[in-house]
Design goal:
The protein has 18 helices and 14 strands. It is an alpha/beta fold. The strands form 3 sheets. Strands 3-2-1-4-5-6 form a 6-stranded parallel β-sheet, with helices on both faces. Strands 11-10-9-12-13-14 form a 6-stranded parallel β-sheet. The longest helix is centred in the middle third of the chain and has 32 residues. Bound molecules: uridine-5'-diphosphate-xylopyranose. Uridine-5'-diphosphate-xylopyranose binds next to helix 9. The site of uridine-5'-diphosphate-xylopyranose (UDX) has 19 residues, from helix 9.
């Protein structure tokens, strides 16, 4: 099929290149001219494992193109995906200006039937607005369909999530749209769920909100574990073995971050409020996450007493491993709080240093974890990168000013570290 993807961010780029890899002809569009000229040369603005290689390969075999012209893309495609950003407004509501602009441009450039697919995370009823907007701006009475096809990809494993999704959700309202979309996804051979459009829109927010709830729940359990001396890893394992609960997303830590959970939760609370429902559970999930970030700072204070003038090493800046994304990263919040308390902060991340230089000031940027830990009063591991999992603890103990390790992601064995002479502080590992 001839496909356009409007919006070349995480979702748009991964979706575009994966559809190209499946044999379709894909045009990725973005209004950022500089980004497009880089992408044409195979220069990718984000770090996502495997993405750059796939983009280069599909550019070479001419299945993938980049342009800034929506017009050219609309003319050349029968299926148009909208994957533009829906950033949060001050009140938490999603800003849908980008979607409206794109809808208008699509309508003005259509010259025949088009299937318009909403992939950005949007409030329920956005597709209805999309439809109205297209009808308003369309030049003649051309036929079109809208589809809601929410994306569930995770940063760091986005390509695998696209090619091996647990389910593909298609909110459709015509037989033609259903047929075209199922044909498009058929090569993946994964379960396809066909729903009405509003259900599909809700599935996205409901899923992300539920996953965030699981994380805040286990973080709350970790607080109890710390008070009574239980180990949250054992508790999570015991819970997760119950198939009704499942073992995923029960990893306690310094709180969730990223471009999706915080924003989507806020938007969902806002949508519910507008519909006259007080989504109290989600408000508690959000508050628990905020508390969790402060809790880590408190753990550092409990060990160091006064933060002012102490040197603190923070390993891991990205909101999770295998990405250089710093958006809503709990690590960045922690660093800012430490600086505010007067600490000297040394930082290191395997992939996010360039982005960190643009958003952090008054910190020392280091080339590796050991350089950051040198002469520090404490080492905080804030992201569970693989390279942090196997450390030379003997070397680390020698170079730290005091052997204090705050394990914000519960990746170390407390017994081993204590035996090596470290003061180990995890999250819910029974440090009461
Ligand atoms: C999420 C959803 O998983 C994905 O389906 C959706 O499309 C976009 O939002 P992403 O934000 O890339 O994906 O990351 P995810 O792996 O879900 O992690 C989100 C945050 O939760 C991270 O900060 C991570 O560290 C944290 N997390 C995750 C935990 O603290 N504990 C867990 O058990 C799982």
């Amino acid at each position: 099929m001839n496909i356009s993807i409007i919006g070349s961010g995480y979702v748009g780029l991964v979706t575009g290149v994966c559809f190209a890899e499946l044999g379709n002809k894909v045009i990725c569009v973005d209004c950022d001219v500089k980004k497009i000229s880089h992408l044409k040369k195979g220069i990718v603005p984000i770090y996502e494992p495997g993405l750059e290689e796939l983009i280069k390969l599909n550019l070479k075999n001419k299945r993938l193109k980049f342009t800034s012209s929506i017009r050219a893309a609309v003319k050349a495609s029968s299926v148009i995906f909208i994957a533009v950003g829906t950033p949060a407004l001050e009140n938490g509501e999603a800003d849908l200006t980008g979607i409206e602009n794109v809808a208008r441009s699509i309508a003005q450039n259509m010259d025949g039937y088009r299937l318009i697919v909403e992939k950005s995370t949007v409030p329920v009823e956005t597709c209805a607005w999309l439809k109205k907007t297209i009808v308003t701006y369309i030049k003649k009475s051309l036929k079109f369909d809208v589809v809601s096809n929410p994306e569930f990809l995770r940063e760091g494993s986005a390509i695998n999530d696209f090619t091996h999704p647990d389910r593909i959700v298609l909110g459709v309202e015509s037989a033609k749209a259903k047929q075209m979309m199922t044909n498009l996804y058929k090569p993946l051979n994964r379960p396809i769920l066909i729903t009405n459009i509003k259900s599909a829109e809700l599935i996205k927010h409901a899923s992300n909100a539920f996953l965030a709830t699981k994380i805040s729940f286990i973080n709350a359990i970790a607080r109890i574990c710390d008070k009574v001396g239980a180990d949250v890893l054992e508790v999570a394992q015991g819970m997760g073995l119950d198939n009704r609960i499942g073992r995923y997303f029960l990893h306690a830590g310094i709180g969730y971050g990223g471009s999706c959970f915080p924003k989507d939760l806020e938007a969902f609370i806002n949508i519910a409020e507008k519909l006259g429902y007080d989504f109290a559970i989600l408000k508690a999930v959000k508050n628990t996450n905020e508390e969790q970030k402060k809790f880590i700072l408190q753990k550092i204070k409990d060990e160091l007493w006064i933060i002012k003038d102490k040197t603190i090493a923070v390993a891991g800046l990205a909101f999770k491993p295998n990405t250089d994304d710093l958006r809503n990263s709990p690590s960045i919040d922690l660093i800012r709080a430490l600086i505010q308390e007067g600490a000297k902060v040394k930082v290191y991340d395997p992939k996010a240093m360039n982005k960190a230089r643009a958003c952090l000031s008054n910190v020392v940027f280091c080339n590796d974890l050991y350089e950051a830990a040198k002469a520090a009063d404490c080492l905080v591991v804030a992201t569970e990168w693989n390279e942090f999992k196997e450390l030379d603890f003997v070397k680390l103990k020698k170079i730290l000013k005091r052997p204090l390790l705050i394990d914000g992601r519960n990746i170390y064995d407390p017994k081993l570290l204590k035996a090596l002479g470290f003061t180990y502080v995890g999250v819910g590992r029974g440090n009461a």
